Amino acid sequence: MSATAPQPSNSDSSSSSIAIRQARDEDATAIRLLVTQALLAADLDVPTAEADTDLIETGYYREPGRGMWVAVEDERIIGCAAIDLGEDGHATLRRLAGVSLANLTAAAVAFSQGRGYRGVETVLPTAMTEAREAVTAEGFLNDATANDLLFRRTL
Questions:
Q1: What is the DSSP letter of 40?
Q2: What secondary structure does DSSP assign to 21-73, as a single string?
Q3: Sign of the torsion formed by the C-alpha atoms of 151, 30, 117 and 112
Q4: Which helix (H) or strand (E) holds 129?
Q5: What is the arithmetic mean of pLDDT over 33-62?
Q6: How far apart are CA 115 and CA 79, in angstroms?
Q7: Quick check: helix, strand or coil at residue 152?
Q8: For the segment 98-138, what is each residue's pLDDT rounded down to a tens digit?
Q9: Cα–Cα distances in Å, from 56 out to 14, 28, 80, 130?
Q10: Listed residue (13, 141, 150) closest to 72, CA to CA
Q11: Is the pLDDT of residue 15 over 90?
């Protein structure tokens, strides 16, 4: 797989040539690049080796209750999403970046349902428009009473 990640497009891609699969160790560089690009585009801090070790060693997401997926087109990683352990029986959707976000979100939700989570939560800044649209389309609701960045979906 190529470690080069493209610039995210302004719209979600639904091309039949895009495949969603579980992330592999060799995808780590492309995933880090996608996440970094998404954070920079949202005017947020870039990941650091100390705070974001899950982006250095994707094996973190092979631990029980966790998972990570990538969108692949023409052998290039073009999108990613991850599920992490949350609180009170909920999963946390993280690392939603790149394209094919609707399909990646659906994979993360299906994984969470299969693991018996009660719900899925994610925090998305307002500048991450495509990610917000993808989670909303997948049934997440913005919980503005708790935090206008928080989206939740009951399973």
A1: H
A2: EE--GGGHHHHHHHHHHHHHHTT-PPP-TTT-GGGT-GGGGGSTT-EEEEEEE
A3: positive
A4: helix 129-137
A5: 93
A6: 23
A7: strand
A8: 999 999 999 999 999 999 999 999 999 999 999 999 999 99
A9: 28, 6, 14, 25
A10: 13
A11: no
What is the residue-averaged pLDDT of the chain? 90
Question: Average pLDDT for residues 83-112, to the nearest whole number?
Answer: 97
Angle between helices 129-137 and 101-114 (to 10 degrees): 50
The whole-angstrom distance between residue 149's C-alpha and the CA centroid of its chain comes to: 15
Strand partners, 94: 82
**CA–CA gap between residue 86 and residue 65 (Å, rounded):** 9
> Could you tell me the end-to-end alpha-carbon distance of the chain, in angstroms, rounded to an integer?
34
pLDDT (0 to 100) of residue 41: 95
In whole angstroms, what is the distance from residue 58 CA to residue 53 CA? 8
- For residue 11, what is the DSSP state? S
Q: Which amino acid is at 152?
A: R
Specify the pTM: 0.87
Tokens for 75, please give them: 């052998």
